[in-house]
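re the bet — no i am not wrong, look at it urself. input seq straight from the record:
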Amino acid sequence: MDDPGELAVAKADPRRVLGGAPPVLVDEWQRLPSSWDLIRRAVDDGAPPASYLLTGSAVPMEQPAHSGAGRIPSVRLRPLSLAERGVGDPTVSLGALLSGERPAITGRTPVRVADYANEIVCSGFPGIRQLPPRARRLQLDAYLTRLAQRDVEEAGRRVRAPATLMRWMAAYAAATATTATFETIRRAATPGEGAEPARSTVQPYRDALERLFVLDPLPGWAPTLNRIARLASPPKHHLADPALAARLLGVDEADLLAGRDGTPPVPGDGVLLGRLFESLVTLSVRVYAQACEATVGHLRTKSGRQEIDLVVQRGGRVVAIEVKLSQAVSDDDVAHLDWLSARLGDAVADRVVVTTGAEAYRRPDGVAVVPAALLGP
């Protein structure tokens, strides 16, 4: 539907979208919102399951007349996970960890820190990651420029100053894997320039970028079993692909490995590589969790004394995951996992530390240590 000719024909005769041998794919359906209602009625009239696929790069401004409940399930399609990229041969299943059966943790991988840095900048977009480095950077930059100059306006938000939007996105990228406040990110968008962009200007940008699936914040985890008091709920900031964050900050693989963080500065723990590695693992875990019919959040108490990077929940069971840019795991690294286990008991199906190491194993205390390349659905 982003082809003007196809869209004109579909508007003239909307029922044409129902034609053809199933499955019929309607791409960028949000440009013709009536297609949703047509397909919903076709389902009501007896169309068998999987007759239609509606794909789109944004949520439509003009909502369909019917939600599609019971007829059209929605699935978020994220960039490729590490397992889907073929980076390693996973030996540890998130689904098995969620079962509570405490599976054996084994496996070895040659993937090292430099390989993960390369995966961060290579992107999980299938059409981009296989390109030569210069062409890949050009495509990612063009994607970001198009967002600022055209896509956000198509999502219903006028962009008076694309440069301001780009600076705000760079500040958001610098806040990757943190819970930095809106005000902190807004201030970082104009370092040393005096006047900050007005909240009334930036808030619509953020809303539009979420509608375009560019921002993918990780919500605070809210346990269904109310055994933990004093939980905070701000989301952790993530872009849809950590490669976008790297491009916005102007860093490449060598910069990440050398500890150069780019600009603008946003307060955060550790080096940029560590936060982008956490974002890469978060992307992968969310893909695996979706396959396992589980949800993912992060845990942070109001005092900030206890934090857990990822909490995967299915039913009444959770798998608590810490992400570490290191090969070795110390007792300090598992302290917050132990804290959660002490409070939730058997509801914690497993405790995991995802690392950049070579070997998957269980520590004597039962915590699973899993290299990122060996974790899969």
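see?? The radius of gyration is 22 Å. told u. also The longest helix spans residues 133-154. so pay up
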